[in-house]
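Q&A log
Question type: sequence-to-structure
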Amino acid sequence: MSVTRFGRFRSHMALHRLKWKDVSKIIGISVNNCCIICQKEEMKQGYYDKLLKYGFPKESLPEPREESVILMADIMDDISVNR
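Response status: OK
Response body:
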């Protein structure tokens, strides 16, 4: 049985004793939106870069997506950050 990308992401979190609130602080969004975004196939390039810089392995992250593409999850991020 192979480990999924999200499984590798969670393993990295466990190995480094990171909780969802820690990851959400790294990328600057709410905990709920962080959980959702990290499970998807793509994430904003900015989030990807921050997690990569923090030490998350490339193969554990969703594919980076150009900032010009706007999804509903991105809008929700902006709303929760600006409250």
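Response note: The CA atoms of residues 27 and 52 lie 11 Å apart.
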